[in-house]
Specification:
This protein has 196 residues and is of the alpha/beta class. The protein has helices at 13-24, 31-41, 44-54, 61-71, 90-103, 117-133, 144-158, 161-167, 180-194, and strands spanning 2-6, 28-30, 81-84, 109-114, 171-175. It has a single domain (2-188), classed as Rossmann fold (3-Layer(aba) Sandwich), CATH 3.40.50. The chain has a 5-stranded parallel beta sheet, with helices on both faces. The protein is globular. The two termini are 14 Å apart. Bound molecules: BIS(adenosine)-5'-tetraphosphate (B4P). It is an enzyme of class 2 (transferase). ATP binds at residues 10-15, 127, 178. Keywords: ATP-binding, Cytoplasm, Kinase, Nucleotide biosynthesis, Nucleotide-binding, Transferase.
Length: 196
Amino acid sequence: MRLILLGPPGAGKGTQSARLVKRYGIPQLSTGDMLRAAVAAGTPIGLQAKAIMDAGNLVPDEVVVGIVAERIEEADARKGFILDGFPRTIAQADALEKMLASKGVKLDAVVELKVDQSKLTDRITKRADETRARGEPVRKDDDPEVFKTRLAAYNRDTAVISPYYKAGGRLIEIDGMRSIDEVSSEIESTLDRLDE
Ligand code: B4P
């Protein structure tokens, strides 16, 4: 199974990917997690990405494409993967097509989580409040002002990705407004039907 999970920030891509990892036994390739790990480790990519991510902007395509190209070559990604948060621009989508073509493999599905923007803000505010209540550091990009920038980046650069895959007939749209369990059962039943 080779999947992409698309959707605006806070739509639940990371939440749903974690569940799909358990169901299908394939790894979650989250560019957000990979970039946060690079920042935490203080690597050259992390040093470059930190200020951009803290401000809610997109990290340059060549950086993100480079980390995905490396990760996709690892042994655990051979039988499949869930791309979470990638591609986020048309240039990234084009680069992914080339990567897959060079490996002679195809995507099985592109799942888009559709969530209204007001709900996204509520979820991110809730995550920040719960993190603070646990006494843990809150993600800088979950700050309400930074979140506005993330939504603007999504509307400017990433919203065009779903029509890109829709044109190729590979897009599955899922109502992401419902509970985590309801969203995951709809994704799972839709993906299970692909095998029939
Ligand atoms: P990401 O880490 O991808 O962050 P995200 O879009 O906010 O997360 P996601 O949609 O996964 O939401 P989540 O499940 O956590 O990106 C962070 C930054 O990294 C970007 O701004 C950018 O700077 C950089 N970056 C990453 N990829 C890049 C790329 N390809 N190119 C350039 N830059 C890139 O859910 C959010 C909250 O909602 C959680 O608290 C969750 O519990 C809750 N929730 C989820 N589903 C719910 C539901 N159904 N009901 C109620 N609550 C729900």
